[in-house]
Design brief:
Blueprint lengths: L1 H18 L5 H9 L3 H14 L6 H14 L3 H14 L4 H13 L3 H17 L3 H4 L2 H12 L17 H4 L3 H7 L8 E3 L7 E4 L2 E4 L2 E3 L4 E7 L5 E3 L2 E4 L4 E4 H5 L21 H4 L1 H4 E4 L4 E4 L3 H5 L3 H4 L9 H12 L40 H6 L2 H4 L31 H4 L12 H5 L2 E4 L4 E3 L10
């Protein structure tokens, strides 16, 4: 076990350094260049004293933890490891190491908890810099948890189309039709077209995208492909905005209206937008506009003939929403349901995606944030615990909240109310810390205790 911990430790240290940016580069380089664990531990302590609020402290704490484990300073190592995982928990190198250390200390419950996390992250992410150590990590996990259980066979089958649902589920069908899900993509079928003018050019509106907060417009290029115009109408502000320019880094020119007429791949609808705005996405086309019933319930042909739908586990249920609400998902054509998209490691994203405490800053990471919550990891809560994709009052309840009138009921359905009734659970446990471009949204990393 000591050997496997050493190998994992050295690779994890390299991974820790991979996470780092360019701040305090001299100090970080000194940690990397330290050949022995005693020096690394000392330099980690110096770094943390000098930069106590550093945005890179997760990686530095990890390096310190591994140095401490190597020196048999287990108590300090466990403290530093927990500090690292508090900021960046999705780290199978560190969680598998933690599992091995805790088992060696006789803490079987803790070992199983961290081994379970390590197994989950190994299945979810597949970055190249983990692959060399994957067999070693899997062996450590298997010693603690036993063989990995077989994954449930994904649902397969033929799609019947949205119209097939209406006969038996009219109330849900009509309610869904009022939601933003149903209006994610609307082709213009009338002979008379509206136009968007950009400079001296006029582009006919061949499709509308979105409806809740903002409406985008797509036009057909000469080759028949749809391209999304950079200018969109924001309903919150009541004015036009350049959406591409708002979300792209400064060095990209996708938001330059003077270049739109080139109809480049970066503005093509099927490539950039279709997976989350149309249903049963394919390489060239999708089967239906908008997010239809079968995007959430799976292929429905056999169900329309009387076969019950299979009940999904909590993980599968969240995976349904992750099709669109997980920014890190690598969206490829998948035949199974729900599609199990692999994820990009969160360290691949720019540092300003996160708050200094490691919490996600952008609302495009809603699923990733929710998956960190104990409500999901330990309580099997899902997105559907609080949201209804076809609420009865969809016109006014744009978020599909099950408890729109009393949002504390989201929490008290599982937890007894333990605080002043005048205080709202969400104000402390789901504060508004996520950026939604033009407004601030609540974090979905539901905290056991409020964090600064």
């Amino acid at each position: 076990m000591k050997y496997s911990l050493w190998v994992i430790g050295m690779e994890s240290l390299l991974f820790a350094l991979y996470l780092l940016g360019y701040d305090a580069i001299t100090d970080l380089k000194s940690i990397r260049d330290s050949a022995d664990a005693l020096t690394r531990r000392s330099r980690v302590n110096e770094f943390l004293k000098r930069y106590p609020e550093s945005e890179h402290r997760a990686a530095v704490y990890e390096a310190g933890a591994l140095a401490c484990f190597e020196l048999s300073d287990t108590a300090t190592g466990l403290y530093m490891a927990r500090q690292s995982l508090e900021v960046y928990p999705e780290n199978p190198l560190l969680t598998s190491t933690m599992a091995a250390v805790l088992r060696n200390r006789g803490d079987e419950k803790g070992a199983r908890e961290y081994a379970s996390l390590a197994r989950r992250y190994l299945n979810l992410f597949r970055p190249k810099h983990w692959e060399a150590l994957r067999p070693s990590m899997e062996a450590t996990i298997e010693k603690i948890l036993g063989p990995a259980p077989p994954r449930q066979t994904p649902v397969a089958g033929q799609y019947a189309g949205t119209a097939s649902c209406r006969g038996c589920h009219k109330l849900e069908f009509d309610a869904w039709g009022q939601t933003g899900m149903a209006k994610m993509f609307r082709p213009e079928n009338s002979a008379k077209r509206e136009y968007v003018e950009i400079g001296l050019r006029r582009y006919p509106v061949d499709a509308r995208i979105g409806s809740k907060w903002q409406e985008a417009y797509a036009t057909k290029a000469p080759d028949g492909k749809l391209h999304v115009l950079p200018l969109q109408f924001n309903k919150l502000l009541g004015k036009w905005v350049n959406y591409w320019r708002m979300i792209d880094p400064p060095h990209l020119d996708r938001g330059d209206p003077n270049l739109f007429h080139q109809f480049r791949e970066v503005t093509e609808y099927q490539t950039n937008c279709a997976p989350c705005h149309t249903s049963q996405w394919g390489p060239k086309e999708s089967k239906e506009p908008g997010i239809n019933c079968e995007m959430c319930h799976g292929p429905g042909l056999e169900h329309s003939r009387g076969k019950p739908l299979r009940k999904l586990s909590a993980e599968e249920s969240v995976a349904v929403c992750a099709q669109c609400h997980a920014q890190s998902a690598i969206r490829t054509i998948r035949a199974e349901f729900p599609p199990r998209y692999e994820r990009r490691p969160y360290t691949d994203f720019a540092q300003n995606t996160f708050h200094p405490n490691g919490r996600f800053k952008e609302t495009t990471f809603l699923v990733e944030a929710f998956e960190r919550s104990a409500c999901y990891r330990k309580g099997n809560a899902t997105c559907a615990s609080c949201h209804d994709p076809h609420p009865k009052n969809g016109k006014v309840n744009q978020k599909g909240l099950k408890y729109a009138i009393d949002d504390d009921a989201m929490c008290t359905q599982c937890h007894k109310q333990k605080h002043d009734e005048s205080a709202r659970c969400v104000e402390c446990h789901m504060p508004k810390t996520m950026n939604a471009l033009l407004f601030v949204a609540r974090t979905h990393q539901i905290e056991k205790r409020p964090l600064k």
